[in-house]
Amino acid sequence: MADLDQTARRLAGILTGGGSTLSDPAGRDLVFEPTVSIHPLERRGAPPDAWAVDGGQALVADARCLQLYVTRAATVRWRDGSCVREDEGALSAHLLGLGESRATLAAAGVPVDPDTAVDVNLLRDWAEWQAVSAAVDACEPGGLVLVDGDLQPDWRIPAAWVAALLERAGARGVLLAGITKHSSLARSGTPLVGAMELEAEATFGSRATWWARVATTRPELGPGLGVHVARLDPDARFAFRVDLPADADPAGGLGRLAALCDDAAFPGYPYPLAVADRLAACPGWLRAELFRRVDDALAGAGVAPEVRERAFTDRHRLMERA
Description:
Elements: H1 2-15, E1 22-23, E2 30-32, E3 39-40, E4 50-62, E5 67-79, E6 82-87, E7 92-96, H2 101-108, H3 120-138, E8 144-148, H4 159-171, E9 175-180, E10 186-187, E11 190-191, H5 192-204, E12 210-217, E13 225-231, E14 240-245, H6 250-258, H7 271-280, H8 284-300, H9 305-312, H10 315-321
Parallel strand pairs: 4-8, 8-9
Antiparallel strand pairs: 1-10, 2-12, 3-12, 4-5, 5-6, 5-7, 9-14, 10-11, 12-13, 13-14
């Protein structure tokens, strides 16, 4: 495959090409720092209360023109070195397609225009942010609420809603932090986080913890956020993108976050979020169990077996098995 070799050489040139232009190919409107300075990070004391939220989804039945999805948002609470709450979240079922999306949107209570395009990403994201809102209200002052991903919700969720949530958190003395596992931030085509990991290691050593602010959001487009890259544990293999409110003290906030990132299984990533990620996941066995329940309900409603089979059988999978 000559074209594969040629493409690989092109990729190698991008990854090793250098340059200093920062960008976000995911399309978020960020104002990047003219100069990115990497600072040593000192671990602070653990917060008195820490909450973590992550969302999950699964496609249960797919008739192509009509899909049945489930979503959920898991919540974890961490105090005194252990989990005191592990809630996988209730499953919510959603029909999308063939005019069902409007009713689904209304039932989910998403505060968007009824004519907004609807997909499962919006529904999952809204459920996740509702759980974040509840965590902010329940968190003790001085605590953290951790969100999987950045602090910029789905573009269809009103910026005013998010701004009000951040303001409420600030008034209660609660710090919101969004941690992105695999960031799209780039520097002249090279993944930014990986490049900064190499630079920080050359400057501070292989076991240093560090942080750098790389961008802020445009205040006129929504709540002000600071976008950072940070390595949060000396044994961490990776650094992460961490979003904080723009007016938060990054060294203090990241230092408190680092106190939750020394788990032996995945050092450098907040343990409460790792637990929430596991709880929110919708594995294959769950999808199969839910499909059986739906199939039984359809049978009970008088839908013939051949109708159910023709609607939901995946022809691609049948052909691949052959």
